[in-house]
Amino acid sequence: MSSNPNNLTTSWGAPVGDNQNSMTAGSRGPSLLQDVHLLEKLAHFNRERIPERVVHAKGAGAHGYFEVTQDLSQYTKANFLSEVGKRTPMFIRFSTVAGESGSSDTVRDPRGFAVKFYTEEGNYDLVGNNTPVFFIRDAIKFPDFIHTQKRHPQTHLKNPNAVWDFWSLSPESLHQVTILMSDRGIPATLRHMHGFGSHTFKWVNAEGAVVWVKYHFKTEQGVKNLDVKLAAQLAAENPDYHTEDLFNAIAAGDFPAWKLYVQIMPEKDADTYRFDPFDVTKTWSQKDYPLIEVGRMVLDRNPENYFAEVEQATFSPGSFVPGIEASPDKMLQGRLFAYADAHRYRVGANHNSLPINQPKAEVRNYQRDGAMNHGTNGGGSVYYEPNSYGGPTESPAAKPVPFEVSGQADSVAYDHNDHYTQPGDLYRLLSEDERTRLVENIVGAMTPVDREDIKLRQIGHFYKADPEFGQRIAAGLGLAVPDSV
Question: Where does heme bind (predicted)?
């Protein structure tokens, strides 16, 4: 589709389905945040006249390829997934979330797992983590959450009071907090951890049929985690341990690999599933929706220049290709704007034209000017649309498949508020040794909190997930489970 010289494209090379009408909830609106083409046009225009990442500042990256091992074209028309054996070049960036660019690799933190597929229909970015869930489920809470993970504005020190105050007032965080404080909170290496798309996405096939999907990258190296004491030792002696390990493994020809699986949910199941399938703090049971193999990702080439490739790499969950679209996940909806806008600010309005981000598909649009525009800037060609000079136009076949929305325009929460069943199930799945380490890690992290009410509030959440869980943490902190639980 994108090979047609008359097709209008996004800056990541994907065809545009409609350049005359923005995406709205019904004919009268309001406009939808998931209209990433609209957001890109407006945000790029704002930057046409002439830092370190806010999150995920410390990272490592590598090149490789993705090879399809199972035909799932019955579910998606995405070209790079169209046939068994098809290979697509890709780049991945692993990262920690909260620390600065000079922080240690072996801290307890989620790991970013961002994959850029250079497909024939434009770049597809899958921007996830090494956990299947997240701390919050609405993007409006993201700046506040990240503020708690950063430094106190007066002392410039990490602030456990802020961390646990926020979590204790945001019970939806309990699932991710339990994972973070478990053994999985400190991976042994970047090669020895799984990756997840985390959000729910929409797949559309050639006939326009819709399914909901979740992505799971399973490491072929096996899952390995670091002992707390060893992690602290490495943080002091070799803070770049994970970066070094990944580079050395690839340089030695020990190419790390992951199998990609998806869970597929029929479109109508979203209305009846026992958890809201668009709530990123929840997982789907693999008994209900088993893992289906898609392909294999192999990392086989190190960057030639860290700054040019890893530091300037930009990823956005809004970089879709035909056959893959957004779901109503509220956290995802906010990220569709926030990530690309962060790159326009940090790297520049033309970040997608840098070699590491440049799509293999030809880019044809009417975006002009902006800082560091190192190409031809469109030359003397027509620079607006619609026009009668034969410039590129939209491809109706690339329009997202509509889905029904209803209700009043209002600020509302998800209907489902069971924040305790899944973390409780996770706790009960752990071995006794794993539970003991989990409790020790939580007690160690909460001990510096100097307000008892924050500790008691958080203990109450652990207790609601599993009474033993809460009781053990309370005992470790020298407190009792609140009577009000």
Answer: 339
Boundaries of every domain in the chain: 36-135+183-375
**CA-to-CA distance for 89 and 80, rounded, in angstroms?**
10
Residue set of the binding site for heme: 339
Contacts of residue 420, Cβ cutoff 8 Å, sequence gap at least 6: 171, 174, 461, 464, 465
CA distance 296 to 222: 15
Q: Report the half-sphere exposure of 387 (CA within 13 A, side-chain side).
A: 14
Euclidean distance between CA atoms 146 and 97, whole angstroms: 9
**Could you give the CA distance from residue 65 to residue 90 in angstroms, rounded to a whole number?**
5
Q: Measured between alpha carbons, how far is residue 329 from residues 36, 194, 286, 292, 336 in Å? A: 15, 22, 20, 22, 11
Alpha carbons within 13 A on the beta-carbon side of 445 = 26
Annotated binding site: 339
Give the C-alpha separation, 353 to 372, whole Å: 9
Cβ contacts of 465 within 8 Å, gap of 6 or more: 174, 178, 420, 421, 423, 424, 427
User: How many C-alpha atoms does 237 have within 13 Å on its Cβ side?
Assistant: 6
- What letter would DSSP give residue 282? -
**What three-state secondary structure class fits 175?**
helix
Residue 418 neighbours by CB under 8 Å, 6+ apart: 275
What residues act catalytically?
A: 56, 129
* 323 vs 43, higher pLDDT: 323
| pLDDT tens sequence across 32-83 | 889 989 888 878 877 776 488 889 999 999 999 999 999 999 999 999 999 9
Q: Phi-psi region for residue 188, left (φ > 0), alpha (ψ -120 to 50) or beta?
A: alpha
Q: Mean of the per-residue pLDDT values for the chain?
A: 94
CA 255 to chain centre: 24
Domain 36-135+183-375, second-level architecture: Beta Barrel (2.40)
Q: List the structure tokens of 337.
A: 């704007």
